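Entry type: protein chain
Record version: 2
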Amino acid sequence: MRDAENFREAFLYANANRDFISSELADVLRYLVRAMVADDPSSSLSGAAQKMSFVEDLLQRCQEPLTWYDLFQASVDDIRNGIPDDADEWRYIRAAKKGTKYLVEGSARDNLAAARASKAFDAFRNAIKWSDEARKHRSEF
């Protein structure tokens, strides 16, 4: 059993760096977004909690100074860089982004939330309409 603990500690120290931690934090964000849109969020929430515990273990062993901003930026970049760059799908990817923004803004509770949600809904609806029109136009050829 001691060998497993030693291996775990060695692994944590070897990977306690900005790049690895931010990639793990990106997975936490992915799990949370999955939970947000799932009919049953329990498995995604469990995955997020497990990953976040791992991130916490890594942060405790990290020797380099890290800020939450840097970690969040690197995590968002990791997710954005993983979004497919497909010419045929970009309209739908754009609509999905607008839809995600609508969900996020619609769940906000600050004084300007309703205005942002309304604007985000309009942008989402227009993105879907534009995607459908482009698909129809494309199928005519």
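Comment: The chain has a mean pLDDT of 92.
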